[in-house]
Amino acid sequence: MRTRPLRFAALAATASLVFTACSGSGGDGKAEVTLWMYPVIKDEAASKKYWAQTESAFEKANPDIDLSIELQTFDKRDAQISAALAAGSGPDIVLITPDQAATYHKVRGLLPVGDAVDDQRKAFFPETLKAATLDDELYGVPLFQNINTTAYNTKIFADAGLELPRTWDDVRKAAPVLAKKGIAVMDYSGSPEQTLNMSFYPLLWQAAGTVFTDDGKDIAFDSDAGVSALQFLVDLKKMKGLPVDAATEGPAVEGAPIAAGKVALRPVTSLPELAQMRAALGEENVSLGAPLQGEVRATYGNPGLLSLTSINEEENREAAYKVLAHLSSPKAQESLNAAAGNFPTRTDVKAPGRGPDFEVLNAALKDANPGEPSPAARQVMAILAPYIQAALGGDLSPKEALKKAAEESRALLARS
């Protein structure tokens, strides 16, 4: 087994774990490629069957490559991948998120993958490629993505004689009308357990703002756009347009005001959450719409990336590229999305279902923001979340809250 330690202390601390998977050429002369796959398909038995068939079909089409797809769990994924990279022994290819890609790239744990899909770049949604682009190089091939959009309790709006709100202005106008009926116009989950990708950041993007500057070296959420987004939330709170406990409310649908008919719309809703709303409110009373529009229309859609690790040997590089190209091809994406219920990262692949819901979700892909890749993304979220709570609680103005959060976040970036 080859063990080529990388020169970075942060990952080396966990390198005591032992991994048996490694790249190279087998005794029969075949190129060996190892892929670590995580539970994209929730049903364990179905997942094992699907990936075994995928491995077999690939090897049949590429008899000179020995592909090993090893199924892992999400538990301690970061520690597991970090240890493998530090030891120089583990997968050639790994499924990761954009912020993980930024972290592993920073410590030289990833290799560029542009050559694997250069002739297919125009087929991918631009934002999915952007999520995997670091220092002008592609460090992950988008395999699938999740998508969220606006869900409406249509009965509430119909009973109030209101059109379904499509813009921030529409939401503001509907808020006082519904408040008189004891109903909040919009749901919001301000609890720290909820990722800001599913709460504040979509509003920030709709205001045409960003979390970080384009080069990722500075904070940008304290801009006029950021203040506008937080002011939108604070104004709604004052108009009783948000749930009373919006600052501390968790992301759950079941047992929450949205499921009790006390909230009219949920601005960031996944397909499983839509099903929960319909179970609580009635199939006929819930519908999906496009993401809300402020200055622009935007929502959160997170791609899963197949990244090539620094463990991959040069003599096996072309074999790894073939695996990446195969798994991200239209046929393979369509098959995986059908099995997993995810959405495509390519414009030439259809949504994994039919009907109005899938039409809306598929259309929302063009407005999807995958989050801004940064090694400090999660730490910045942890800093910003309580300041948003403070603004919603009236302890700080939106401008003051974002200024204080930005100061702490810039100090974090300077340390890292």
State the name of the first-level CATH class of the largest domain.
Answer: Alpha Beta
* CATH homologous superfamily designation of the largest domain: Periplasmic binding protein-like II
Number of helices: 16
Q: In total, how many domains does the architecture comprise?
A: 2
Gap between N and C termini: 33 Å
Structural class: alpha/beta
Number of strands: 15
Query: What would you call the shape?
Result: globular
Helix content: 40-55%
Low-pLDDT windows of residues: 1-21
What value does the Rg take, in angstroms? 23 Å
Q: Give average pLDDT, whole number.
A: 91
How do you describe this structure in short?
The chain is of the alpha/beta class. It is built from 16 helices and 15 strands.
Tell me what you see in this structure.
This protein has 416 residues and is of the alpha/beta class. The chain folds into two domains: 9-146 and 301-369, Periplasmic binding protein-like II (D-Maltodextrin-Binding Protein, domain 2); 149-300 and 376-415, D-Maltodextrin-Binding Protein, domain 2. It is built from 16 helices and 15 strands. The chain has helices spanning 9-12, 44-61, 77-87, 98-106, 114-117, 126-131, 154-159, 168-179, 200-206, 224-238, 271-281, 317-327, 330-340, 356-364, 377-392, 398-415; strands spanning 24-25, 31-37, 65-71, 93-96, 110-111, 133-134, 137-138, 141-145, 149-153, 184-186, 263-269, 286-289, 299-300, 303-309, 368-369. The strands form four sheets. Strands 1, 2, 3, 4, 5, 8 and 14 form a seven-stranded mixed β-sheet that branches. Strands 10-11-9-12 form a four-stranded mixed β-sheet. Helix 15 packs antiparallel against helix 16 (398-415). The longest helix has 18 residues, at 44-61. The chain is globular and about 75 Å long. Residues 1-21 have low confidence and may be disordered.
